[in-house]
Specification:
By secondary structure, the chain is an alpha+beta fold. It has helices at about 5-15, 25-30, 35-45, 75-80, 105-110, 125-135, 150-155, 170-185, 190-195, 210-220, 270-280, 300-310, 320-325, 355-370, and strands at about 20, 50-55, 55-60, 85, 100, 115-120, 135-140, 160-165, 195, 205, 225-230, 235-240, 255-260, 285, 295-300, 325-330, 335-340, 375-385, 395-405, 410-420, 420-430. Keywords: CBS domain.
């Protein structure tokens, strides 16, 4: 049975793209309080079902598939550049295919401007008109206005005219940055990409008994199950260890783990994997904002997803990617890694930043463990010492050394040299991600 929150989200998703909604309207339509309606609209915004714009309102926009996430709607553009909508508000839900900077003659400008694009230009009102007639939206820089006839044309064609106080270069940089951020998000695996949905998940009810657990165990061969109420609310987890020596008639809510650790759809797979290792659990329930069970993810699912992600081409570069690109591995048994400090990895003093140095050592350690065929690993704790400042464009040599290794933990020592000078040391403990 769906909660009020879920029903509101389903209602919002059923609305035609381009419709305006408000807290008051949703509260009246769904017969809920304005607080409940507000929370649901905020969640819809997080799910990219709607976009809220100052002085315009909240608009239902098209939910983009992950492969098209880098394509922005005009509503998102307005928020990115702190814009003001001069006309064509009913077209804000549309998605732009490209943007064109109008720093050329009018005829040349129009050759590059086509339907679905966004023309970024100053106070050239004729260019505004021509772009709208071509099927393109217009972004006016420098805080300029346009003619009333152009505003009317924008309303008629459902194509936004947006004005911003920023200059053309700044606007283009901001939009590029937003697309770049979206590309990075696109590369990050989330629970929603890999989880096992509710319809394929074996569960137990909170009024079931140990006998029901054994029945499910024989049917599925699984050793752990989420425990839910009649309304599908997660209330516990039960494993084979919990039922050892228990009577068949004993209720499972007496032996289950109550208020178990759970993940949401938007939790990253890496974060879920770390949590599962640290807490020593093999099955993680996935819930929504109301605490209703949506599915599960296993440690095996996490491992497969991480391994698959490492084989995929990456589009957006994070600081981790920049660090990995500068690593050169030498040696077979006694591994050494050469590394060049680029300007992007430095702090305000021109020395390597603590974050970049930490990522470097973590990556070197993980690589050394893979060479020992120990699989995936995550850092549990670390102690890092800077002995001498490391300036940009320095070439470093990192020498990892395994001090102690068990089935679950590895302790490693690192020495970092610049030429023959010792510039840094570290001690790290890794936890191994078991299959």
């Amino acid at each position: 049975m769906s909660t009020k929150h879920e029903k509101i989200l389903q209602y919002i998703e059923s609305l035609p793209v381009g419709d305006k909604i408000s807290v008051r309207q949703i509260a009246k339509e769904m017969q809920v309080s304005e607080g409940t309606a507000y929370r649901a609209i905020k969640e819809a915004e997080n799910r990219r079902l709607v976009s809220s714009i100052e002085r315009v309102g909240t608009i239902r926009i098209e939910k983009k598939k992950k492969e098209n996430i880098e394509r922005l709607t005009f509503a998102e553009i307005v928020n990115i550049i702190d814009g003001q909508v001069l006309g064509g508000k009913s077209g804000l839900h549309k998605t732009l295919t490209k943007f064109v900077i109008g720093a050329m003659k009018l005829d040349d400008m129009m050759r590059y401007t086509d339907a679905g694009s966004l023309l970024i230009v100053g106070n050239r009102t004729q260019a505004h008109e021509y772009a709208l007639k071509t099927g393109a939206a217009v972004l006016i820089t420098g805080g300029f206005d346009t003619t009333e006839s152009n505003k009317d044309l924008a309303d008629e064609l459902d194509l936004p005219i947006i004005s911003t106080t920023y200059d053309t270069f700044t606007v283009a940089t901001m939009i590029n940055r937003a697309i770049y951020d979206q590309l990075i998000k696109k590369d990050i695996l989330l629970i929603e990409d890999v989880y096992v949905p509710m319809e394929d998940t074996a569960v137990l009810k909170n009024n079931d008994t140990i006998a029901d657990f054994h029945r499910q165990n024989r049917r599925t061969t699984h050793g752990a199950f989420p425990v839910v109420t009649g309304q599908n609310r997660l209330v516990g987890m039960i494993t084979s260890k919990d039922v050892i020596g228990k009577e068949e008639s004993e209720p499972i809510d007496k032996v289950m783990t109550k208020n178990p650790i759970a993940a949401s759809m938007k939790t990253s797979v890496a974060s879920a994997g770390h949590r599962m290792i640290w807490e020593g659990i093999d099955l993680l329930p996935v819930i929504d904002e109301e605490g209703l069970l949506k599915g599960v993810i296993s440690r095996q699912d996490v491992l497969k997803a991480i391994q698959l992600a490492q084989r995929q081409p990456q589009h957006g570069e994070t600081i981790d990617d920049l660090v990995k690109n500068e690593m050169r591995v030498m040696g077979e048994e006694d591994i050494e890694v050469e590394f060049t400090v680029t300007p992007q990895m430095t702090n305000q003093f021109g020395a390597i930043s603590y974050g970049a140095f930490t990522i470097l050592l973590s990556e070197v350690g993980a690589f050394a463990l893979k060479r020992r065929k120990r699989g995936e690993a995550v850092v549990e704790n670390m102690n890092i010492y800077f002995i001498k400042p490391v300036q940009m464009e320095s070439v470093l040599t990192v020498r990892p050394r395994i001090l102690d290794m068990s089935r679950k933990f590895v302790k490693m020592d690192f020495e970092v040299y610049s030429a023959t000078n010792l510039v840094g040391k570290a001690m790290m403990t890794f936890q191994l991600l078991e299959r």
